[in-house]
Amino acid sequence: MILARIHSPRWTLAFACLAIAAATHLNSQDVVVLRDLKLLRDVNIQDFDLDGVKLTDGGRISWSDIRQATVSNDRQELIDQHIAEIGLPLFRIRQRMKAGDFANLQPHASALRKRLGDAATDGNYLACAAEFQAALYAGDRIKALGPLLHLMHIRNTDVERFRKLDEEAGLRFGRSGLCLNLLPVWFETSSAKLEHIEQLLKEKPHLSDDHSAVYLASLGQAHGKKIRLDKLDDETNIEIWNAILSAQSSLFDKKYLETIKQLDQFRFPNATAEQAIALYYKGLSQLNSEHLKNSTAAITLLQIPANYGRDFPELSAAAIYHVVVNSKDTDGLESLIKELEGPFRKTYFGIRYRETAR
At which of 48, 73, 98 does a domain end? Predict the structure, then answer.
């Protein structure tokens, strides 16, 4: 029993603290206890910033990896403050992301975002990603746009650096700079949420850049505004997105044949988010047009889950949902319904189908 107590995490930490005190008393070296309770003796903390500590041997340690540190100079209070205010919430964010616990990310992400502001640090990137993932998990795609704009702004300060964190954060980006976790297609509208995004951009205009322009334009058009992009990072990209935005506008105005014509005139790159979105708008237009049969729309819409099911689950579920609820022939729908109740059950339209089917 005594041995069990000695080897418990609490006793291990206590021994680590005693070791810190002894090491600090015997020499002027710094001592660091990591989160896994590994003790680093005979190290010298040369400097520190919002990302972590820098050692004299060139090594770096993130605040999220440090449980406790004792330094031999007058920086102890600042070190303790950084561990508590940055290290602890970042550690908890990383733990929950690794476990897929998106429901409990928000409090830690919010605390870290408040502490770091607009700083372009690894911790702030992961905090923005955590807020983004928490909003997506809750099904609030428009709310997710706010932290995504912050995240994209940080990412664009040093793409090579921050893309190394994408796998940990569960983020995917396309060649055009779009975040593939949230395509710029809006299934519901909310004037209050749109106003919140617009207010955010008034307060922080630097968040409105080439990479966020597509999201803001598509969201504005979903609320009835007419928007055309004047510039993007390359000419091909702007032609593609203005074609999509024009089709979105025509669809909003119920000019279904015009939407189809606009999309048929433009050749979209294969196997891209842009092509998937174009298929979605074309399929919806075909579905609503009095001049076309529903089977035509079904063929178009079902290309999305067939080709992009795993990549774009929200858009795939939307396509299946519209085919199911608008089909006059129930034959063959069982397999589609299983998709909404199975792999796509947590998507916006998966949830919506279950609610309407009750």
Answer: 73
- H or E segment at 336? helix 333-341
pTM of the model: 0.86
282, part of any domain:
no
**Furthest-apart CA atoms within the chain: distance in Å:** 87
Helix spans in 223-347 (H): 235-252, 256-264, 273-288, 294-301, 303-308, 313-326, 333-341
Residues 146 and 184 in one domain: no
196 and 160, same structural domain? no
Helix, strand or coil, per DSSP, at residue 66: strand
Among the listed residues 328, 334, 277, the one whose alpha carbon sits nearest the alpha carbon of residue 300: 277
Instruction: Please give the helix or strand (H or E) that residue 178 lies within, else none.
Output: none
Residues 255, 334: one domain?
no
Domain count, the chain: 4
- Residue 305, C-beta contacts closer than 8 angstroms, at least 6 positions apart: 316, 317, 319, 320, 339
Pairing state between β 30-34 and 39-43? antiparallel
pLDDT in tens, 243-285: 999 999 999 999 999 999 999 988 888 889 999 999 999 999 9
Residue with tokens 């803001």: 216
